[in-house]
From TrEMBL:
It comes from Prochlorothrix hollandica PCC 9006 = CALU 1027. This is Putative restriction endonuclease domain-containing protein. InterPro entries: Nuclease_put_TT1808, Restrct_endonuc-II-like, Uma2. Residues 193-265 have a biased composition (Basic and acidic residues). Pfam families: Uma2. SUPFAM superfamilies: Restriction endonuclease-like (SSF52980). PANTHER family: SLL0995 PROTEIN, SLR1095 PROTEIN. Residues 1-10 have a biased composition (Polar residues). Coiled coil: none annotated.
Length: 271
């Protein structure tokens, strides 16, 4: 009889967990000017979409478009995703975000950026579904833009007064530095400028409140004076009425006296 040999399962190695670092080890900005522009755009986009819970805005956040390949990544200086909730993320992993890529990205040039690097970024954004890409060089005040048409990111020939289809913001690169306008016509401002504006608005509101209080006090004083005048007029009217009544009483007494004298055969006119 041939002996039966039991086959044992071949051991398999446990799957290796793929790590997606939250940092690429690169600084957010190379100088203060670049940092100011990154924060200006990111903060104003935050304010612009603050009331919409389904618009996610981030700055310098690593974006991983392909699951299982952490080497494919990019960290736009600012990005906007429509259709994804606000909230904390260590990185943007597209397969965990309903496979939605950022629709709009911004890059701010610094002296350390090389043309080859920026070309690779443009190709990355084209390949992985970005709809609008804006590149600003604050040193030369130069703005370029690309918009997706027929499956590719097409260069925007004229960015002067260009209005972003997704964001509704308008660009004015003829101003130096660049001015970006919200849909309501207000320009993007820094946090410090917004704080100064808020303080000015608070002071104006306080001054208006003080003026309104003064007007209220003046109106109250006028009301009191009018009431005093009304009371004086009423008192004068009462005195006049009393004088009229006394005059009437005197007239009645005179009439009674005259009648009495006539009863006695005397003519009042002779007295």
């Amino acid at each position: 009889m041939t002996p039966v040999t039991a086959s044992l399962p071949t051991p398999t190695a446990p799957p290796i967990a793929v790590e997606y670092p939250d940092s690429d080890g690169q600084p957010m900005a190379e100088n203060t000017l670049q940092f100011e522009w990154i924060t200006l755009i990111k903060e104003n986009l935050d304010w612009l979409f603050a009331a919409d819970p389904q618009v996610f805005v981030a700055g310098d956040l690593l974006w991983y478009p392909v699951e299982g390949n952490p080497k494919i990544r990019q960290a736009p200086d600012a990005l906007v995703v429509f259709g994804r909730p606000k909230g904390y993320r260590g990185s943007y992993r597209q397969w965990q975000e309903d496979h939605l890529p950022p629709q709009v990205v911004f890059e701010i040039l610094s002296p350390g950026n090389r043309p080859g690097e920026m070309s690779r970024k443009l190709l990355f954004y084209q390949q992985y579904g970005v709809e609008e890409y804006y590149l600003y060089d604050p040193d030369s005040n130069s703005l370029e833009g690309w918009i997706r048409q027929e499956g590719i990111l097409d260069w925007i020939e004229t960015v002067q007064d260009w209005v972003s289809p997704r964001l509704g913001i308008r660009f004015d690169p003829s101003a130096d530095p660049l001015v970006i306008y919200r849909p309501d016509g207000e320009s993007f401002v820094s946090y410090g400028e917004r704080s100064r504006q808020a303080e000015q608005e608070r002071q104006r509101a306080e001054q208006e409140s003080q003026r309104a209080e003064q007007e209220s006090q003046r109106a109250e004083q006028e009301s009191q004076r009018a009431e005093q005048e009304r009371q004086r007029a009423e008192q004068e009217s009462q005195r006049a009425e009393q004088e009229s009544q006394r005059a009437e009483q005197e007239s009645q007494r005179a009439d009674r006296l005259a009648a009495k004298l006539r009863e006695l055969g005397l003519d009042p006119a002779d007295l």
